[in-house]
Design goal:
This protein is an alpha+beta fold. The chain has 3 domains: 80 residues, TATA-Binding Protein (2-Layer Sandwich); 113 residues, Hypothetical protein, domain 2 (Endonuclease III, domain 1, Orthogonal Bundle), CATH 1.10.340.30; 51 residues, Endonuclease Iii, domain 2, CATH 1.10.1670. It is built from 15 helices and 6 strands. A 6-stranded antiparallel sheet has the order 1-2-6-5-4-3. The radius of gyration is 19 Å and the shape is globular.
Length: 298
């Protein structure tokens, strides 16, 4: 249940479940939010520059924002109406996922813009978080619309489709430049990202893999973080370590049969708890002695 009310130029809201800004914005799903003083995060999403900060009594403050914008945009973006307590209860029987949930019980999977998410994860391939964030900021500054409260919106498909890939190479995109422009041109010409929402997971992956620079792992990230496929199960180097060491029955090259059998429609949530915890505490702590505590100060 979410309670929300206007306050001091923004909206305060309260959930009856854990919600961690730190774990939600640093778990590898979004690249345009930065920590600010007091435990809050400033960022750009939905073509708006905002700050979201923790307040007393477990509430949060989002500004600038009207109550209407909160109800129509941010409530869905932050996935506030979903019961993560029920998800955690359903996944509790898996001891490794349980450790991830105990480490970061306040993660929520964001509902992001499909085109921005697609380009962001094309950029993410073989890259680190700091560089991904820097490249996306440069891309937005160069070809995005300037926003009223500072910063730049993510560029539209049409804006990126019209540029020479060499311009992207000049800001450090490297070989990804051709992928970004090629994907933007396909989307601008009518490739329907949202069509994936009505497909089963296998067909949705195939659909997205038609885009330049999109392979199975990137497709799974796009599906999970922007197209409501919470049954997706992206396998990067961290999740691969988990599968090899803790789930020997799973072939990490073809993880979907295992993920479907083990977690069903909740595979994406299990994936995110595993990924965030092992990346945060390290392979040996997470995959070593299971009795080792993994506390999270965030």
């Amino acid at each position: 249940m979410v309670q929300a009310w206007e306050w001091n130029g923004g909206v305060r809201f309260r959930l009856d479940e854990p919600f961690s800004l730190q774990d939600t914005f640093t778990c590898g799903q979004a690249f345009r939010f930065y920590p600010v003083e007091g435990g809050g995060y400033a960022g750009i999403a939905l073509e708006r520059a905002v700050v979201i900060a923790p307040m007393e009594n477990g509430s949060f403050f989002l500004s600038p924002c009207t109550l209407g914008e909160f109800q129509n945009l941010w409530r869905s973006y932050l996935d506030l109406d979903r019961s993560y307590a029920k998800i955690m209860e359903a996944l509790w029987g898996d001891p490794h996922v349980r450790r991830g949930m105990e480490y970061a019980p306040g993660i929520r999977i964001l509902n992001q813009d499909p085109f921005e998410t697609t380009i962001s994860f094309v950029i993410s391939a073989n890259n680190n978080m700091k560089r991904i964030m820097s490249l996306i900021a440069a891309l937005s500054r160069g070809w995005g619309r300037e926003l009223p409260y500072g910063g730049y919106a993510f560029p539209t498909p049409e804006a990126l489709a019209s540029i020479d890939p060499m311009e992207l190479r000049r800001i450090g995109m490297g070989y990804r430049a051709e992928y970004i422009v090629g994907t933007a041109r396909m989307v601008a010409d009518g490739f329907d990202l949202q069509r994936s929402m009505s497909m089963d997971l296998s067909e949705a992956r195939k659909h997205l893999c038609r885009l330049p620079g999109v392979g199975p792992k990137v497709a799974d990230c796009i599906l999970m973080f922007s197209l409501h496929h919470r049954d997706a199960f992206p396998v990067d180097t961290w999740v691969k370590k988990v599968l090899l060491r803790l789930y020997p029955q799973c072939d990490p090259r073809h993880p979907l049969p295992f993920a479907k059998a083990q977690y069903g429609a909740l595979a994406g949530y299990a994936n995110q708890y595993l990924f965030h915890c092992i990346r945060s505490v390290g392979e040996e702590v997470f995959c070593g002695a299971l009795a080792h505590p993994v506390g999270n100060g965030g």
